[in-house]
Amino acid sequence: MIREGLYLIWHDEPYPANTDGYRVFIYTDRPGDGFRETAPGRYERDVTDEDGLAGAYISTVGTWRGVPIKALYDEGDRVRIEYTGGQAPVAEALGMDRVDKGVYQTWAPRTDLPDLHEIALS
User: Of 8, 16, 31, 103, which has the highest C-beta tally within 10 A?
Assistant: First the structure.
């Protein structure tokens, strides 16, 4: 599983989390206690400090062809990766797509990413 983003622990389970600037919410793809359906297959629940939350920003990282990357999401056998080495010529030499100034991404076969692992930044 590729995880990238803010996760909050609620009732001993990690949930992806977000904010709209006014509220903090967790979400899931299945119905649950206090969750409301906001779109087909998406359920949200507002949370507050009183919910006893803990959390961290979780990122899935590793290497690809000898360079540092983070995994953004997957589609079966392929993983969308982003170069995190900070050297544009290196990313360009690897044939990665420039998606923004200084941001390079590409698709990689999952088998080319044997050392993917999660890190938590709290």
Answer: 8
Verify that 114 and 97 share a domain, yes or no.
yes
- Decide: 5 and 16 in contact? Cβ < 8 Å: yes
Question: CA neighbours within 13 Å on the CB side: how many for 122?
Answer: 6
Domain match, 48 and 76 both: no
Residue 92 has pLDDT above 80, yes or no: yes
- The whole domain housing 103 covers 57-121
Q: Are 44 and 72 within one domain?
A: no
User: How big is the CA angle at 47 (ends 42 and 51), to the nearest 5 degrees?
Assistant: 130
Tokens 């119905």, residue?
31
List, for residues 29-61, the tens digit of each pLDDT value. 999 889 999 999 999 999 987 888 888 899 999
Question: Do 13 and 42 belong to one domain?
Answer: yes
